[in-house]
Amino acid sequence: MVSAQQSGEQMASYYYQKGEFDKAAELYESLYANTRNIYYYRTLLECYINLQRFKEAERLVDQRIKQTSNDLTLYVDLGRLQQMRGDNKKSAKTFDEAIRRIGTNTKQTNDLAIAFDNYQRPDLALQVYLTARTKTRNPFQYIPEVASLYQRMGRYDDIAAEYFSLLDKSPGSLGSIQISLQGMMRDDPSPQLTQAIRSALAAKIQEQPDAKHYLEMMIWFALQQKDFEFALMQAQAVDARFPDKGAEQVMRVAAISEGGDALQVAADAYNYVVAKGKDNPNYIKARIGSLNVAFKQLNINYPLPVDRYKKLKQMYSDAFEELGRSASTVQLMRNYANLLAYYGGEVEDAADVLYDVLEMPRLNAQVVNATKLELGDLLLFAGSVWDASLLYMQVEKANKNDVIGYNAKFKNAMLSYYNHDFPWAKSQLDVLRASTSKLIANDAMQLSLLISDNMEDDSTYTMLEYFASAQLMLYRNQLDSAWRLLDEISTQTLAHPLLDDVMLEKARIQMKRGEYIQADTLLARLVQFYPSSIIADDALFLRAELNTDKLNNPLVARECYEQILLDYPASLYVDTARKRYKTLPAPENN
Predict the structure, then answer these.
(1) Are 48 and 56 in contact (CB under 8 A)?
(2) E strands within 104-262?
(3) CA-angle at 112, arms to 109 and 116, nearest 5°
(4) Angle (nearest 5°) at CA 70 between 68 and 71
(5) In the chain, which residues have pLDDT < 50?
(6) Element counts in the chain: helices (H) and strands (E)
(7) Which helix (DSSP H) or strand (DSSP E) does residue 174 occupy?
């Protein structure tokens, strides 16, 4: 059975929610008189305010202050009422009285500051915290709260001053300060905040040129702004001043630059540490990092000059002679195998390297599975289709619900596609379209649509067979044979669902041949003639890379990235396109 108080509270709440404040006030008056509950007080006060019964409201607050004088938030209620009645001078005195009464109680201080903040008076909330600092004689208390108020008030220079005064006092707080500022810059991307931090940092470094914490802070800030080159320069300066630290900051910049696609900066950083000699504690890690970055800088779409191939091959040989072939150099071995097979055509030697990896004892299962997939790709490249399929099936079976298992399943579906078993390939691809991996799901969808469109258009699958065989030959670097098959499609029909795909594959062949202008023309025509094609964004992205890496035409690359952002917002390339767009120069105004 519901008690009388519960029943009264429910009825009061009902009237309050409906806006019938006179009926609600009558009930809350009784409830508050019996309990002095803070919730009833707050709700009754709001009822009086809505009814403009200010005298009763002020009497309610005065009585509450007499009963609980330590609750300074009541002075905010009183000052608010006085302001509503037009007595701003009296209201200001009330607010001042609340702040004057602040003691050393942290909860009391926070409650009062929050009350002022809720009343849209961040200036008074700030005054609360600053006054509390004076009372506690602790100038570093409430820094996050004060900085947050400064941010909302647009006082960005004061934010930097707050945190850097703490850093002056306590260099060990560097990490927590970085976390706080990172959150603020993420929530408030305005240039004023970053400029205030940059200016304050520059001033501090000028004042304290040997303060390691400020030099590290500058490196951190440069990395936040993705100014990797400046970050490396600062890290090298730290290493010059503090050589006993093993170039830790340079290695940090190298790793973050590598992850941020700033591969040349990463290479310079790793090579800097390598040049310091074998006695450096980070020498081996830098040696491996340098070669890994050198491999990442290769692009499968372009041929590798013979002299560069030989140089890179020798670098790997030297590394293995120095570091050995073990679990710590497995990634080097896998990259080396890829270099030998796809850039040097030394398939048997490449396969031997991967077999050596798989024979290592106690190797991580994830590494084993990834190596098996790479070996499968290599065997497919060499023409050993069934051996490749067996490896893909092994990985899929061992990782049914993992991304690597889905990847293996996709590779086997591709293999069926190359073998012209289109219905089976499509059935597997349709399963993968629900994959948790966005990239695999997208690739599966594209190939599934390619198959279904052409199965419907051509019951004999003749053109689709030509196209699948051409793609396999391109993968195997049999460029002339691939081109001839693509020509068969182009010459036998003037209108076919495959013609846009034919143009893309021909562009890739021209890129492999080093015929970059012809490749650029094909990609431009594809987007022009087939703007609604599912591969139009692929063509734009490939064309942007081509104009950046080979044709030295950054304005065209910028236009391609911009078109992806504007016309293909659902493309998987959007994030990368946005990042690269920002790094390319804008056209000059005439």
Answers:
(1) yes
(2) none
(3) 140
(4) 75
(5) 1-2, 590
(6) 32, 0
(7) helix 174-187
